[in-house]
Each structure stands twice: as C-alpha cells, then as structure tokens.
Amino acid sequence: MKSVKSASILLCLSLWATSGTFGKVVAGDKGAPAKAATGKQTATCGSSTTLAPGQSVTITSENYPNAYTKPQDCTWKFAGESLDSTLTITCSDFRINGCAFSTVDISFGDYSSRYCGEVVGLKETSDSNAMTVVFQAGDRGKAMQGFTCTVTASDPSDPPTPPPQTKAAPCQCGVVNRLARIVGGTETGINEYPWQVALTSSRTGTRPFCGGSLISADWVLTASHCVTGTKPRSLKVVVGDHNWSTTTETASVAYGVKRIIMHPQFNGNTLDYDAALIQLSSVIAFPSDNRIAPICLPTPGLLYENVTATVTGWGTLTSGGSQPYVLYEVDVPTMSNAVCSQSYVNQITDRMICAGVSGKDSCQGDSGGPMVTDSQSGTHKEQIGIVSWGNGCALPNYPGVYSRVSEFVTWIKSNTLGSTDVCLPPP
C-alpha cells in the first residue's frame, strides 16, 4: 500500500471546473487573438492578447472585488508584439482559496509557478515574449475575493533590468553540530542538524505533522503533499527545535508563512514532483553558533546512488506507532532507481530516489523532512531527498521513496532567486 509519510494523510483534491466567459471588458472575442489598444484594458477569460511595448492589460477573477462563483477554469494568453519583449505580471490584490480548492498558474517557456491563498507582492517577469495564466477553482471550499493583476510588455529598446544579485550571508550551509551527539543512539544531538524545521498548525499546537529544511534565510523546502489544501495563515514553521514538548530546551522560534509554492506538476495520486517551497513571514538572522542554519542544495545531474544518507524527523518510530518528542535520525543506503523499481514496479520516476534497508526507514510524520549526505568534498552536507512515500515503514524489500532534490534545483532557484542572502558551503 502506498502511503505518504505524514501523521495525517493529506489528499490531493481534484478540481471540477467548467469553462465560462467572465471578466469586465472584452479584449477580443473569447479564444480569439486580440491586440491591446493604447492604454490599459481588461482581458476576458479565454482571450489571447498581444501587447505592444509599454502596453498593459488587466485580468481579474469573476465579480472582482466581490467573491467569484465556483467552479472556474479560465486561461489567459499573452504575447509581446516584439520578439524581444518580455512580459511582467503584477498582482495588487490576490486572495483565493487554499491550494486544494483554488490555484493560479503562471507559466512562460519552461518555467511554471503556482499560487494560492493570500499572496502579497506577487510579481513574475517572463524570459520570453509569451505568458500564460490559468485560474482554476473547484466546486468545494469557500470562494474568496479573488485577484486583480496587470500584465505589461517591456520596451525592447530599453536596457534589460539586471536580475537581483545574490550575495553570501555571514553563515555556512550544510554544517552539522556534533558536540552533543548521542553515540550509538537514534536521537539526534540538540540542534545537530540546524536546517531541520517542524511544520505545525497555527491553531492546534506544537506537534509536528510534517518536516522541512531551511535552504535560505526565508525559504523552506518540504513535500507538496504536506501543504496540499493548506492556507499560509494556518501554518507555522518552527526552527531551532529539538524537543517539541518543551520550550526551555532550545531557543526555537515559530515563524508565520507568507507564501506556499507547490510544484506545478505535483500529482497527488502518484506523488510525482512531490516538492514545495514555503516562504517565511520574516527573514532569519542566522546565529553565529550555527544552531540555526540552512542545508546546501545538491549538484544537479548527480544521481547519488549507493551513498549513505541521513534522514531526520519527528515521525513515528514504527508504522502506526507513537510520535517521539525529540528529533530522531537514521542512516540509510541509497540505491539506483532500477533496483528500487523491483519493489515498486512502474511507480518510480526520475524525480524520485529510494533509500533504506529492513529495519531502517522514515515513517509517518517524517514527510517533507530532509535526507542529506556528504558532499563530494566532504566538507558539508547536501540535501538529496525529501521524505515522500513508501509501502509501510522499514518493511523488507520496500525502501523509502524520496523526492530527488537534484531534479528540482533549477525550479527552486527560479522561485527563490534574489529573495534574500544565501549561505555558501564551507571552503
């Protein structure tokens, strides 16, 4: 039986949607190409709009600023009149339902990003002269106010705006703290893995339902199935914790969530592309003692087969067992996908990596947490996996299945570039 490794299994809900014409001012017949007139106007659902350099067009959800009706399935397509143009979408107001019920996908070229919930300061700029925006809302969940966004074509004669420069913060990624290590045990030392975070409900307390890992001062990497249907305001991210039942052992901090980005190709049935990003409500000032620090990303293209990796989390110690208060670790061997496919026939994709032997595995409640291994230089740790799913826990011939982080590095960087300073590995 395929099971996600979270304390409560989160189901990916299908969106039942129908097409319909909505919007305010028609910019051409539905589905037909339209050229924007001088000035700013509103494009209807289903329209294709061509923008001259410097021109803008606005898109809104149905009935905005009043609540939209459900279900919805709407696509807008935009193209720059010049092949050298780029397109920028800016949303001054964005309030839709949680990811399981309502989503907005923005795509151009090979890039795609999904937005849901309440998003402040949404802005995306294409690397080409084409952009597609898709709004879907199922017939479940409460309809919200919706959104209003403006798409603007650049003037190709203007010099391009340089991308934000990422600079190194006074910290290092991937460095473990070994001073308090418990020899021969499975409990970690306090803050031994300083990138480990706990995902908790902002309403029901401090018990972690999933894990995650710091990858920068304001971004967390986790599994999409952990945040399906989750609104940013209902989630807390706890950093620097060890024993979640007490507040005196560590100086842990619970952060609010500004934004959740699920991978746009996540499949809740197969758990393919099971990766998500969480942006914290404020930026972490990393302490000099390294008790809170990010993990390093892996090298794209490397398979990390037949290496020893470490998985950490607050998940149950046996399938269906009790959840510990303290953070635990387990060392597991990785394997090739060909070997793993002997256990999971036709279920393992290139976005997955398997690890584990009988008696050693991640389990319920560990979902979203990191699997790390030594870098090729041996100076630091790199995250190569995200706890995703498996047949039970630690069963013979059924290894744990993890999202392969090396397949997501480009997607991660494209969504987090320039957001804040980053930490570099030790020399």
Overview of the molecule:
Mean pLDDT is 81; it is low at 6-39, 160-169 and 179-185. Helix content is 4%, strand content 34%. The chain has helices spanning 224-227, 337-340, 409-416; strands at 2-4, 33-35, 40-42, 48-51, 56-60, 72-80, 87-95, 102-108, 111-115, 122-125, 130-137, 146-153, 168-172, 196-201, 210-214, 219-222, 235-239, 253-255, 257-262, 276-280, 308-313, 328-333, 352-355, 370-374, 381-391, 400-404, 422-424. It is globular, with a radius of gyration of 22 Å. It has 427 residues and is mostly beta strands. The chain has three helices and 27 strands. The strands form five sheets. Strands 1, 21, 22, 23, 24, 25 and 26 form a seven-stranded antiparallel beta sheet that branches. Strands 18-17-14-15-16-20-19 form a seven-stranded antiparallel beta sheet. A six-stranded mixed beta sheet has the order 2-4-6-11-8-9.
Topology (elements, then pairings):
Layout: E1 2-4, E2 33-35, E3 40-42, E4 48-51, E5 56-60, E6 72-80, E7 87-95, E8 102-108, E9 111-115, E10 122-125, E11 130-137, E12 146-153, E13 168-172, E14 196-201, E15 210-214, E16 219-222, H1 224-227, E17 235-239, E18 253-255, E19 257-262, E20 276-280, E21 308-313, E22 328-333, H2 337-340, E23 352-355, E24 370-374, E25 381-391, E26 400-404, H3 409-416, E27 422-424
Parallel strand pairs: 2-4, 3-5, 4-6, 13-27
Antiparallel strand pairs: 1-25, 5-12, 6-11, 7-10, 7-12, 8-9, 8-11, 14-15, 14-17, 15-16, 16-20, 17-18, 19-20, 21-22, 21-24, 23-26, 24-25, 25-26
